């Protein structure tokens, strides 16, 4: 990141938390290995001063020679649209005890709390910081770490049941990671609310490997003097470790379901399959196996139409569903509603003569469906690669993702070029503010739609 020999760089980062557009010094190089504590403190104070100047200039609407990092600048813009006051308190209405306990017991994060405590909680305690775990709404479910920092966290309402989304508390690692969908570090005056300027935090999202759904956020917070650029990498690594443990637990659960399903299917004639509650296949008879059957967000016993199978009869089993396929071909889809109005939860609802069906979308699939909805005439793999990555050579990635979309939403898409079928009516529900369109996305086409005002077929 820095030059090999000197201490001067141009158009590089002052440190991980603050990009510099003018000549600056690298703190790691400007302080020799035997630098005194006074020198280190001077570097830290200089860094914080630059951040405060950038923050103050942004609030005044003035240009600053040291620009905020893109993830911070975009967050500040969102927070301003929310109407938050930089001088406000960070207090929020806490969840009731029974609601807090319900959220704790109903999230898969509870299964990996021992891993999080062992991998991050002890480190946070030793480094005079705390570990915080939130749900997908930014509500604090658990926290642990240094006792003194825990008491100090109480003064800013960083406690169990508190809300730490951007629309409540402004730019902070928890809320900004929720919105951006990636690991984020926020230091000192990068926080929008002044009360948090003497804090530093790093957070990373945790996703459910079964369906890609966001489970919550892992965060490490502490006084600004405890800042270290490696904290972000540590938090991100622990979040991936938690996802890996969840994945192993899921594979073990599918194996248990398979042991129950195999003898059952031996006694069933015709097409049938057993899947877990997320649609992952445990056993099948009378038809080719698939990795996963997309299930609606709400599935009950009885007749149900599934795009990839057609009309089925669903019967509950311990840990999953028995699906008996009644129709030989999938039902005909006549309408799709792409709901992008909720920034953190894109959803697709498909409907046909046999009924309707809804499913949450991954961020990438939401991007692809939005682009195809805007370009009803169709897009080639190379054009979509430019739309997503500004690189026409990344067609392999595009084709692989579209293959997954076509398997999950059977009967909706054609190829050569990729497009919605002519008979399918498409409606796109957009957020009230175009700048909130797919906030996780860095695709050039989506960035352009935010600036130019998002649009879509039948959009609202």
Automatic annotation (TrEMBL):
Pfam families: GAF. InterPro entries: GAF, GAF-like_dom_sf. Gene3D superfamilies: 3.30.450.40. Residues 135-245 form the GAF domain. This is Diguanylate cyclase. It comes from Streptomyces dengpaensis. The lineage of its organism: Bacteria, Bacillati, Actinomycetota, Actinomycetes, Kitasatosporales.
């Amino acid at each position: 990141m820095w030059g090999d020999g000197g201490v001067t760089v141009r158009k590089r980062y002052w440190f991980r938390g603050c990009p510099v557009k003018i000549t600056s010094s690298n703190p790691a190089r400007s302080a020799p290995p035997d630098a005194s504590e006074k020198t280190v403190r001077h570097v830290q104070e200089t860094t914080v001063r630059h951040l405060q100047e950038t923050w103050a200039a942004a609030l005044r609407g003035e240009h600053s020679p040291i620009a905020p990092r893109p993830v911070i600048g975009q967050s500040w813009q969102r927070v301003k649209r929310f109407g938050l006051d930089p001088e406000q308190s960070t207090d929020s209405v806490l969840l009731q005890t029974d609601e807090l306990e319900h959220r704790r017991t109903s999230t898969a994060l509870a299964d990996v709390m021992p891993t999080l405590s062992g991998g991050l909680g002890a480190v946070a305690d030793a480094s005079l910081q705390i570990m915080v775990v939130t749900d997908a709404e930014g509500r604090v479910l658990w926290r642990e770490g240094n006792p003194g920092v825990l008491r100090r966290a109480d003064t800013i309402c960083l406690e169990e049941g508190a809300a730490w989304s951007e629309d409540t508390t402004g730019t902070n690692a928890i809320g900004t990671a929720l919105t951006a969908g990636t690991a984020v570090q926020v230091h000192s005056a990068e926080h929008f609310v002044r009360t948090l300027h003497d804090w530093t935090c790093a957070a990373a999202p945790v996703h459910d490997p079964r369906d890609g759904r966001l489970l919550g956020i892992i965060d490490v917070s502490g006084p600004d003097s405890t800042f270290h650029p490696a904290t972000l990498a540590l938090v991100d690594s622990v979040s991936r470790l938690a996802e890996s443990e969840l994945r192993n637990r899921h594979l073990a659960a599918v194996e248990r379901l398979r042991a129950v399903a195999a003898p059952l299917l031996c006694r069933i004639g015709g097409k049938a399959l057993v899947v877990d509650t997320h649609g992952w296949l445990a056993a099948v008879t009378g038809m080719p196996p698939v990795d996963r059957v997309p299930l609606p967000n709400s599935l009950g016993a009885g007749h149900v139409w599934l795009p990839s199978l057609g009309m089925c009869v669903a019967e509950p089993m311990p840990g999953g569903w028995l699906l008996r396929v009644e129709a030989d071909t999938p039902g005909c889809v006549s309408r799709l509603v792409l709901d992008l109005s909720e920034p953190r939860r894109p959803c697709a609802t498909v409907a046909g003569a046999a009924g309707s069906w809804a499913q949450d979308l991954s961020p990438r699939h939401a991007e692809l469906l939005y682009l195809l909805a805007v370009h009803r005439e169709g897009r080639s793999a190379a054009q979509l690669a430019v739309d997503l990555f500004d690189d026409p050579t990344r067609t392999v990635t595009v084709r692989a993702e579209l293959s997954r979309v076509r398997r999950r939403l059977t009967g909706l898409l054609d190829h050569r070029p990729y497009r919605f079928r002519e008979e399918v009516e498409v409606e796109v529900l957009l957020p009230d503010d175009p700048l909130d369109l797919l906030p996780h996305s860095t695709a050039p086409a989506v960035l352009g739609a935010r600036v130019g005002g998002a649009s879509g077929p039948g959009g609202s």
